[in-house]
Amino acid sequence: MSKQAQFMDVSTYRGALNTSFVHRYTHGEDEWSWDIGMAKAARVFLAALGPVTNQNILDAGVGRARDASEFILAGHRVTGLDIVENSSWPLLRKRWGDRLTLVCSALQDWQPPAGELFDGVLDNGCFHHQHPDEWEAYLSAIRQCTRPGALIGLNVFGVDASNPAPGWREMDNQRQGYFFTEQGVRETFEHFGFTWQDLVVIERQHGEAVYLLALVRT
Ligand SMILES: C[S@@+](CC[C@H](N)C(=O)[O-])C[C@H]1O[C@@H](n2cnc3c(N)ncnc32)[C@H](O)[C@@H]1O
């Protein structure tokens, strides 16, 4: 991974990431929650799940649970994880009952209930903020909690012609985002043991560059 040297250690970076996301949600600056590109990524993932309902879906970095709510409306069950306990969660728990489980935890620290395996995982904008030394732990956590052949959607930042260099870009409060090329995203997820299925390029409503939705399987 390029430019690892600029990174603080894992534990300090985790603190910075938490501070950054708490700040954005508390101040209503979580523009991604209303980004039509992110909503589109969730719809593409939902369509790729196919017609079978009542699938067990994990939403990694669930945020305000926009995507989780859409999956429940489509007939699925969702577990959502996030490092920030969102103010919308109490009402969402009341609304969706046992169709939605919300847990405040980093994905790479979380132990799923014994025997629970997911049919699909969506990571809509979370992986590309993880410390590079945690990429392996983060992606193995996904592999370990999914059934063989499960569909995994990872929606990450992608470079565009205005700034085609892949690598880390500094965001607010020391939060970093990794911007991939199309080839780089495939190489990365294959390197970590996933089977490649498809790539969908999605326009980003807010901010520079594009989203690259990688669809892979365990
Ligand atoms: C850009 S936001 C996207 C939120 C949501 N998926 C959406 O589309 O609106 C990324 C989310 O991931 C959460 N997050 C960051 N690192 C995480 C981790 N290691 N495990 C779980 N959640 C994490 C953040 O708190 C934030 O809510």
Question: Can you describe what's shown?
Answer:
- The protein is globular.
- It contains 6 helices and 9 strands.
- The protein has 218 residues and is α/β, with parallel strands linked by helices.
- Strands 1, 2, 3, 4, 5, 6, 7, 8 and 9 form a 9-stranded mixed sheet that branches.
- The structure holds S-adenosylmethionine (SAM).
- S-adenosylmethionine (SAM) is lined by residues 17, 21, 32-33, 38, 60-63, 66-67, 81-84, 106-108, 124-126, 129-130.
- This is Class I SAM-dependent methyltransferase.
- One of its GO terms (biological process) is methylation.
- Keywords: Methyltransferase, Transferase.
- GO terms for molecular function: methyltransferase activity.
Describe the secondary structure blueprint for this structure.
Blueprint: H1 10-26, H2 36-49, E1 56-60, H3 66-73, E2 77-82, H4 89-96, E3 100-104, E4 118-124, H5 135-144, E5 146-158, E6 167-170, E7 176-180, H6 182-191, E8 195-203, E9 210-217
Parallel strand pairs: 1-2, 1-4, 2-3, 4-5, 5-7
Antiparallel strand pairs: 5-9, 6-7, 8-9
Helix pairs in contact: 2-3
Bound molecules: S-adenosylmethionine.
Residues 17, 21, 32-33, 38, 60-63, 66-67, 81-84, 106-108, 124-126, 129-130 line the site of S-adenosylmethionine.
Keywords: Methyltransferase, Transferase
Protein name: Class I SAM-dependent methyltransferase
Pfam families: Methyltransf_25
